[in-house]
């Protein structure tokens, strides 16, 4: 059986010999053995520091696997950096089901300097394309034209969405402002432009998808009206 030495004992020996320990000895494996034998370090130590402590810096501070396909292997690389020494940790991820996954790389250090690096994996909509600007053709007064923004999903999970009008204009209407993008399907957001005077108008929308680490999509739509347009 492999014996894990205490932090103070390990670092005291290291300083006495004046030779750095291989960092692979500091990285705590989070896998649970089939026999469910309690792990001394996990039960007696706390791992609260993120990204860096007084001796070690982890880059990146977290490992996200944003979007995946079942049965496909993915790899992320993590670097441990200390003065005069570096160590690279490669994390392999192969999902078997559509859900959120979480784990943590724990680095056992001296005293209260224990370091953890969160590892996340989650399905996302990676084929959603919303342009930043859309120009609607000129429309005669009293008439209207609609533009459809499709929201599609290629994975078997529903995603909620919300549309915020951050720069409104009364010549524009937007429907729906919220809803669900169905699994392996799509939903349409319709923007209707009905000018009431001869000028150029615009509205700015922000589309937010309910997924992890999501960034909003911002889209500005412009429309105009001028005299003598064909009806």
Description:
This protein folds into two domains: 7-122, Immunoglobulin-like; 133-224, Sandwich (Immunoglobulin-like). 7% of the residues lie in helices and 42% in strands. The chain has helices at residues 7-17, 40-44, and strands spanning 27-28, 49-50, 57-59, 63-66, 74-82, 85-93, 101-107, 115-122, 133-135, 145-152, 159-167, 172-175, 178-181, 186-193, 200-209, 217-224. A hairpin with a 7-residue loop joins β15 and β16 (217-224). It is elongated. The model is unreliable at 1-28 (pLDDT under 50).
Quick take:
The chain is built from two helices and 16 strands. With 231 residues, the protein is mostly beta strands. Strand 5 and strand 6 form a beta hairpin.
Indicate the overall shape: elongated
| Helical percentage | under 10%
| Biggest sheet descriptor | 5 strands, mixed
- Beta content: 35-45%
CATH architecture field of the largest domain: Sandwich
What string, H for helix and E for strand, traces the elements in order?
HEHEEEEEEEEEEEEEEE
Mean pLDDT: 76
Reading off the top of the CATH hierarchy, the class of the largest domain is best stated as Mainly Beta
Parts with pLDDT < 50 across at least 5 consecutive residues:
1-28
Total number of domains: 2
| Spatial separation of the terminal alpha carbons | 85 Å
Distinct helical segment count: 2
Oligomeric state as shown: single chain
Give me the count of strands. 16
């Amino acid at each position: 059986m492999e014996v894990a030495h205490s932090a103070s004992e390990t670092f005291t020996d290291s300083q006495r010999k004046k030779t750095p320990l291989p960092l692979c000895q500091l990285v705590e494996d989070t896998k649970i053995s089939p026999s469910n034998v309690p792990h001394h370090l996990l039960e007696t130590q706390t791992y609260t520091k993120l990204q860096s402590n007084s001796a070690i810096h982890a880059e990146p501070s977290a490992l996200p696997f944003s979007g995946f396909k079942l049965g496909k292997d993915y790899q992320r690389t993590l670097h441990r950096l200390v003065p005069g020494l570096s160590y690279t940790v490669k994390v392999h991820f192969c999902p078997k089901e559509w859900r959120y996954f979480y784990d943590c790389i724990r680095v056992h250090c001296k005293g209260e300097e224990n370091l953890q690096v969160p590892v996340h994996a989650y399905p996302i909509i990676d084929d959603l394309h919303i342009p930043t600007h859309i120009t609607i053709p000129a429309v005669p007064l009293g008439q209207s034209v609609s533009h459809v923004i499709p929201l599609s999903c290629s994975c078997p999970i529903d995603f909620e969405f919300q549309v915020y009008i951050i720069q409104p204009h009364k010549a524009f209407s937007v429907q729906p402002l919220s809803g669900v993008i169905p699994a392996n399907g799509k939903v349409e957001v319709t923007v209707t432009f009905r000018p009431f005077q001869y000028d150029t108008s615009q509205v700015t929308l922000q589309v937010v998808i309910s997924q992890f680490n999501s960034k909003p999509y911002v889209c500005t739509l412009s429309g105009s009206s001028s005299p003598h347009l064909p009806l």
